[in-house]
Amino acid sequence: MSSTEDIVTTYAKAPAKTITANGTTYAYRELGPKEGIPVIFFVHLAATLDNWDPRIVDPIAKTRHVITFDNKGVGGSSGKVPDSVEAMADDAYAFIKALGFDQIDIFSFSLGGMIAQDLVVKHPELVRRLVLTGTGPRGGKDIDKIAGVTYWDILRATLTRSDPKEFLFFNRNATGKPAAKAFVKRLEERTEDRDAKMKMPAFQTQLKAIKKYGRGTPSDLSKLTQPTLIANGDNDRMVPSVLSEDLHRRITGSELVIYPDSGHGGIFQFHEQFAPLAVEFLNR
């Protein structure tokens, strides 16, 4: 049992740690009380430990043991990025088992949600509750077009000297633009001990894995018995919003939240509404 003095509840102050599993050294951060079932965060395309919105992580870490990690070959984790989502799920499983957990809750976003689905399908006994945000099912419509959208928005961002996430995650309108700036600013709250940036070859391999996943045979999600919360914005240009509805139809008893006038990063734009909802769902 942790004493209250050493419980870290702000992501900006979460200590950076490493653990080795199957020859790969994984970089991770943990915060919140160290008891109970942990909530493992599965991150998005091109993302490192520094890409989690503290306004989502911190509220969950008030009552739960939260762990974020770098996928193999990303940020502070060693090795080479796998070229399939399924292999990424195998790596995540190795990381979780190395930490000694037999049961976890998952919070996932985008590519992280694809990895989470593959993990749950293969190891249903490991996962108690599942949060899938900004994501879609294996073989989902237009998932294989994500690379094209991503490269186009990176170009648009470069020309305007902006962060690509401002284009990829948010609508370019009067509500989306300020929400995007605020989100990017929040990601800079951690000033010390920041993670290594994503390298271009690793990013390109992740995009290939997503394309393969988008063209893959759909997983049988009807077998999922875990309580599942699905969330997105109503105008997701990266992983089309209809795919959240598709997941909702296929996962029995799942709950679906779609935020208005928002894109791929709808949960970040609406963090004030979404964070308490996620906390309540995970703590049920």
Write the layout of secondary structure elements.
Elements: E1 16-21, E2 24-31, E3 39-42, H1 54-61, E4 66-69, H2 85-98, E5 104-109, H3 111-122, E6 127-133, H4 146-159, H5 164-168, H6 176-186, H7 200-214, E7 228-233, H8 242-250, E8 255-259, H9 266-269, H10 271-282
Parallel strand pairs: 3-4, 3-5, 5-6, 6-7, 7-8
Antiparallel strand pairs: 1-2, 2-4
Helix pairs in contact: 1-10, 2-3
What does this structure look like?
By secondary structure, this protein is α/β, with parallel strands linked by helices. The chain has one domain (4-282): Rossmann fold (3-Layer(aba) Sandwich), CATH 3.40.50. It contains ten helices and eight strands. It has helices at residues 54-61, 85-98, 111-122, 146-159, 164-168, 176-186, 200-214, 242-250, 266-269, 271-282, and strands at 16-21, 24-31, 39-42, 66-69, 104-109, 127-133, 228-233, 255-259. The chain has an eight-stranded mixed sheet with strand order 1-2-4-3-5-6-7-8, sandwiched between helices. Helix 1 runs parallel beside helix 10 and helix 2 packs across helix 3 (111-122). The longest helix is centred in the last third of the chain and has 15 residues, at 200-214. The model has no long low-confidence stretch (mean pLDDT 97).
